[in-house]
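To whoever is covering the structure queue this week,

Two jobs came back overnight. Logging them here so there's a record in the thread.

Job A:
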Amino acid sequence: MSREVRRVPLDWQHPCDGRGEYIPLFDGNARPYRSEAEEWVRNCAAWDAGTHPDLIGHPERKANMPFFWEWDGNPPDPDRYTEPTAPETCVGWQMYETVSEGTPISPVCESAEALAGWLADNKASAFAGDTATYDQWLRMIVAGSAPTFISRDGGRTIISGVAAMSDRLPGATA
């Protein structure tokens, strides 16, 4: 993903490190740490047993990488997830970049329309410096997320996922 709407409490403050930079975090409501950790443990056990889907037809993988973390990386880090929040308190709207775990690119807004307006008015990056219109942002917000970019015309044209998503959604105009 590239851009993702997160529903957050109106007073949400994304944590920062000692330099004042946002700490990338996965959305604990959409991807709870416990679920991610349990899935990693199941995959690790399957790797050890030789039944992991990525080993089927590829025995050399286990021979070259006997430990699952060599193939897939370390287990999830609980410090990289937001705490799950009760849905009834998540009335705010905030846009995140999600190329990494996720950092905000907007303030928390009171509505989808207010967020779309802020993103358009402030020329927020939809991809590689490309911005998007209010309507494009709003359609993407309603969809929930957009990929980084889409290539068209056999790769000759690259557009932001925000623009591409809005073109494919009902009510979109060319």
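Job B:
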Amino acid sequence: MMDHKKIREQVALDAAGALRQEESLEVRRHLGECETCRREFEVLSAYVGGLKNLPQPVVPSQLVARTQARILRAHVEARSESASAAMFGALAAFSWLMTYASWTFARWLSGGSVEVFGVNLLDAGPWFATSFAVTAITAGVAALMLSNHRQARRVL
């Protein structure tokens, strides 16, 4: 047997018809013993009855189809963004791999020294700084081009 406080919390659910049969029977037994809960149940039952008599809104015929299409578009865009992020990650890894491979090849080909203004361009610092700058500029241009392409697709 539930206590008064627990049953009082379920009176509104029972008035709305939202309880299982066993729970509803327990609430109804309590209503036979408790005047306060019975009055609350009667008031809530009247509200529920009134709400059922209100006119139901008419749903536009194409609402479900438009909503499903919008959800599908959102899923496609999310997948596209995920694929773009994976592609950018793979391109970054490829870029670093190619930078290292070309640095190793250039050092092997030149004997390890190409000096300009007293700086050996084939030392790790100058080589990777230059490669990073070139890669960053290329990535920035690619990101701008992809951004413009996506905005043009959204307009269509």
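Note for Job B: The chain has a mean pLDDT of 84.

Please reply-all if you pick these up so we don't duplicate work.
Q.
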